[in-house]
Design brief:
With 464 residues, the chain is an all-alpha fold. Helices cover 76% and strands 2% of the residues.
Length: 464
């Protein structure tokens, strides 16, 4: 059974889905005029300067942090290490490749999330792929929306949102501080319950405080290691670009990798990390207080930039300049920890690198739990109505608690499979509604141009 699920997982996350994900990004990049380059400076400014004048439940920054909370997780630490260990340094190049075009896809998701959102029975904003499928493509496509919501609910309850994240936290704390996993799991469940039962406002407030701090701390540690090993930085970049198009020779404990292995591991792990095209982030984006759909699209686009082009890049470079990516005697999940410990000292009998990574990994995984709780809640509400929200939250908290007691490889594989299947209806909708994305973008920039002209005219009138 496990072997079959593993083969199915590899098939779903194989070339067809990866080509569809990247292909959609390339198509949107062309139709939107390279928006991820030309409008990135504006997008970064909007993170903090959006006017929040439209309808919604949380600020645009809160929506971004909620999406980043679910996106920035174990994939940025363990996933990058896995990609390098299997695909070689070239995998990092293909991770950048997928992220670059994924930014255009994430922009489109943000636009459609705002364009087709609606209020639920409780008066809260509801949006995401299930809503832009039904409200944008039409009721006859509702089965696609149901398929997405069902897949998203399963991933939230049995995979990305619970077991895998809880296991990452409990294993890290148990290995570093020797605290029992079961006790840590119970504490996690209580914390998650306290936050999530207060709704999206509580989740976004926690995300707004924790996400920037945890990202900054992780970046500081990685940059410190890179500065100390600055002499190895240029050779690392040279090896990345060389290995992207030529096989990586066996070196140290690394057994070598083909170009195909580099492409598959880089693109797959990149998409898995930043979730561009999977349809999860627009569920959070829909809750943002904004008047213009394109504005939230720009803000959403920065999520992929931050996740893959900054955080994943720093992880990959840290693994390379310290040389640990070549070690065959170190488990893939422990590569980043080993890299940290090669530079940072031991204090009070505890390796500082292990402690800092434990803190970062725990925060990354904990915020992922919170973000996926909201994703699953919105999927459940779409399928069964607002009355299902409270039972869903109870089950979710229970799953978090159980995560410390279970070692369910089959469940994780099923969750990964369904996670990949989420992308199919979402990408179909994005391609079908790409004309709407282009039109919304044009309308927004015409509005900005008109506002600019009016301001100039007003200044000239005052001077006259």
């Amino acid at each position: 059974m496990i072997q079959f699920l593993d083969q199915l997982d590899n098939f779903i996350w194989g070339p067809p889905l990866l080509v569809l994900l990247v292909g959609t990004g390339i198509m949107l990049t062309i139709r939107l005029g390279l928006i991820q380059v030309t409008k990135l400076p504006q997008a970064l400014k909007l993170i903090f300067k959006s006017d929040h004048s439209g309808e919604g439940d949380i600020s645009s920054f809160g929506a971004l942090c909620t999406a980043l909370a679910a996106t920035v997780g174990t994939g940025n630490i363990i996933g990058v290490a896995t990609a390098l260990a299997a695909g070689g340094p070239g995998a990092l190049f293909w991770m950048w490749f997928a992220a670059f075009f994924g930014m255009a896809t994430k922009y489109a998701e943000g636009v459609l999330a705002i364009k087709y959102r609606q209020l639920d029975e409780n008066g809260q904003v509801a949006g995401g792929p299930m809503y832009y499928i039904t409200n944008g493509m039409g009721e006859k496509f509702k089965p696609l929306a149901i398929f997405f919501a069902f897949s998203g609910g399963l991933v939230a309850l049995f995979g990305m949102g619970t077991f895998t994240q809880v296991n990452a936290i409990t294993s890290s704390i148990e290995n570093t501080l020797h605290l029992p996993a079961e006790g840590v799991g119970i504490v996690l469940a209580l914390l998650v319950g306290i936050i999530t039962f207060r709704g999206i406002n509580s989740i976004s407030k926690v995300a707004e405080k924790v996400v920037p701090v945890m990202a900054a701390c992780y970046l500081i540690i990685c940059v410190t290691i890179l500065v100390i090993n600055h002499a190895s930085l240029l050779p690392a970049f040279e090896l990345i670009f060389k290995s992207a198009l030529t096989p990586t020779a066996a070196v140290g404990g690394f057994t070598g990798a083909t170009v195909a292995m580099a492409i598959r591991n880089g693109v797959a792990r990149g998409v898995f990390s930043n979730e561009s095209g999977l349809g999860s982030a627009p569920i959070a984006a829909a809750a943002a207080k904004t008047e213009w759909a394109a504005e939230q699209g720009l803000i959403s686009m920065t999520g992929t930039f931050i996740d893959s082009l900054i955080i994943c890049t720093l992880t990959g470079l840290t693994l390379m300049v310290t040389g640990v990516w070549q070690m065959s005697d170190v488990a893939t999940g422990a590569l980043t920890e080993t890299a940290f410990n090669t530079v940072l000292p031991t204090i009070g009998g505890l390796p500082l690198g292990s402690v800092l990574l434990m803190v970062c990994l725990s925060l990354f995984a904990f915020t992922t739990i919170l973000g996926w709780n909201y994703y699953g809640e919105r999927c459940c509400e779409f399928l069964f109505g607002a009355k299902s929200i409270t039972p869903y939250r109870l089950i979710f908290v229970l799953m978090v608690g159980l995560g410390a007691f279970l070692q369910l490889e089959a469940v994780w594989l099923i969750a990964d499979i369904v996670n990949g299947l989420m992308a199919l209806p979402n990408l179909i909708a994005i391609v079908a509604l790409s004309g709407v994305v282009v039109a919304e973008t044009k309308a927004y920039y015409e509005h900005l141009q008109q506002s600019k002209l009016q301001s100039v005219e007003a200044i000239q009138a005052m001077e006259d």
